[in-house]
Fold this protein.
Amino acid sequence: MNVVRNGVFRGIRLFQKTGSIGGGKGVFVHRGGSKDDLVTFPIGGRIMNGFKGDAKMFAGDLCEYRTDANGVNPKIYLLKTYLVESVSGTTLNIVRDGFKHIPFVGDKLGVAPEYIGKEMKSATIVAVSKGKVGSQDVWVCTTSEELTAKKGDVLVEADTDGTMAVKAINGVVDCDIEMFGVSATEEVDFDAVHNLYTPMRRGEMYISKMSPIPVCVLKENTSKVNGWFRVDY
């Protein structure tokens, strides 16, 4: 739910927004019998790295449920991933097909490191537009510097300290969620949208139907079934 903060207006104010929602994917593996699957955390938290504009997270996306030293005051960090179509100098083409995350100006992206949360080389996106590479729809991004990446690489978000923004994978997004406006990145931010969300624990998904997954995250897969991904924390 979005909370819109406005000044005093002694009348009726109407908000209207247009957009389109693509088709859904049955990403979760449905199993019979008794199961301990897709259970909620005891309390949700504020999404700290939302999008810089209208975008969505998809069912089966992964996230980090990060608590403090006492195991309370959780904050949510989304694993946003981007599939490279091609790179030439400071022009980065990211696959655009309606089932992948949207890049925005100001995003710091780079090829995922060998291990989750570790150092990575990144560049800041300074311009984004729609385009095509052959028959493939892409987001044409101009970056602040050249990225060493190739077709098929998976990009992730970098933190301000040059490490991967997500430090651990322990949560799952259970359904498509729409995120409108510029998301807050601080707890005290009166001009941005604050998204409060409770992710799920566990869950088993078809890898082919998930958002692109970097190798460092695939290493965390606990499923013993080929083509399935499980979060078991």
Remarks:
- The chain has one helix and 17 strands.
- The first strand starts at residue 39 and ends at 40.
